[in-house]
Known about the structure:
Strands 1-4-3-2 form a 4-stranded antiparallel beta sheet, with no helix packed on it. A two-stranded antiparallel ribbon has the order 5-6. Among the domains are: about 160 residues, no CATH class; about 140 residues; about 70 residues, no CATH class. The longest helix is centred in the C-terminal third of the chain and has 24 residues. About 50% of the residues lie in helices and about 5% in strands. It contains 22 helices and 6 strands. A hairpin with a 2-residue loop joins β5 and β6. The radius of gyration is 44 Å and the shape is elongated. The chain is mainly α and about 550 residues long. About 25% of the residues are buried.
Amino acid sequence: MRRESRAEEIAQEILSSERYANARAFEDRVYRDEPILRTGAQAFRGAVRKGGFGSATGSTPSVGADRSRLSQDTALPTEYRRMRAIARRQDMRGAYGGQSAGKAHLFYLQGKYMESFEEDFDGQTYFDRYYPSYEEMSNYQLRCYFSWRTRLRAGQTPNAPLSFLFVHAYELLCGIGVRPGKEGFEVLSDFAMAYAGASPAFDVHMRQWLHDYVVFFGLEEPLAPDCPSSFPYPAVSVLRRTEDFLLSKGCSMDWWQHDREGLPSAGELLDALCVLSRYRAERSRFVKTHREDVAEVCAHVFAQMVDHCKKRRRTGFVEGLFGPPTKRYYTMFASALFWAPERHPNTIYVVSDSEKFECRGGIWMRELPCRRAETSKELGTLLHAIDARLRVATNDSHPLKQRALPKYQAKFVDEAIAALLMRRKAEEAARIRIDPSRLASIRSAAARTREALLTDEERVEDTNVSASMDLPKSQPQAQPQLEKEPCVPNDALGLNSEQMELLQSLLAGDKPQKTDSLFVTLAVDAINEAFLDVVGDTVVEFDGETPVLVEDYADDVRAAL
């Protein structure tokens, strides 16, 4: 009796509480005696029948769902009810919630029905699902989503839950609201750019889906992004192209000097080796400051390793590092709700020399340049040895502690470094250096030498010419107008009359009268050859197509004439 009276007191407290008086569970109901204590199964069935645990899909309660049940059911547009009715069709029963293909098919049908639907609803909600779809949303969340999508299509970029972004990305992949193909790729790319940085997962998935979109719809190659993989497959293709060239043309230790189309340079090979090795050589200070030398040594060692593997191993150098080329099954638009109404036709799509796709009977295969997708320890050891031994050979102030290296590889590295240093030394010896500060002393020494070789008559004539040129410009003397005498050949210089006329016109600062380019060229060559023994240099140069007398030798030309 005491227990029953205590239960009645608790029931009266609950019924008289304002918190429960306005609750929906007690709305429009007549109180009748019933047991207070019920089993968990009875309580759960009653809550589901009254809508107390969310939608029939089994979603967890949320603030948006409560608001939908309290205030939005009466004003809900009929399109939402018809969209939800698609999930209750006979052919869709059992498909949703179990298999991902059935869930994607349901999403496609519902999305196509709501393709052109627009909503103007002012609300905010929280929505977070692993594979978000329309069925996971409550009515309130649906209204918020389609309102956000309406503003997005109008050119705005409003804030939205992350799951809303994924739902809209699924729509674009399925061609809902956009024409599949180049137009769909541009809209999908703009959407990814507009919400870039929303989350790392969103950025990674969008990059993967953009790549798959280009392949699936057969768009142009320039649209395809880089191979979306954590492993640098393009770098393996660089090594394979280099190895194929060395094996086909013979193993040449200076192969990087060949200018051939499609053949990587020594710098490209170095970049590929750096990203494929476990030793991060690109972070080395010495590699950064001596990049050309390191690239040349790496190219030399790579050629020797290719030749060594050809003679001593059953597999090639690159295949021994990363395995042979391989084909693998590939799922288009992985981690997305994607449904294609028709089977994709058989096709082959080549993205690059490191990635190729093939579709047969709706099944996709992806061809990659190697089987093992992991960096190489052997390459890391080689790059570390090249870095360490080059520092010793160049007397670098920051040496590296050398690691254990096979003797034949150490020999390859030392030979490559020796060849590099020998070539650098030969280039240094053949290099001509001109010091502009010593030009004045060289000219004065040449003038003294010329003065010592002049005869007395030549000195007197040279003095008269210099005196006539040193007259003050402020007191010009009137010269009688004389008829220009025809030029006569100069036997001492070996010049004919036409060549003498050209030389005198250049000495006077006039343009040559004859415009025949062949004659002018031959005459200039004869003049320079004649004065080579007198001056020791070229006295006439070309300014474009016009011959010009070198000012430094004008006095010498006058004296010789």
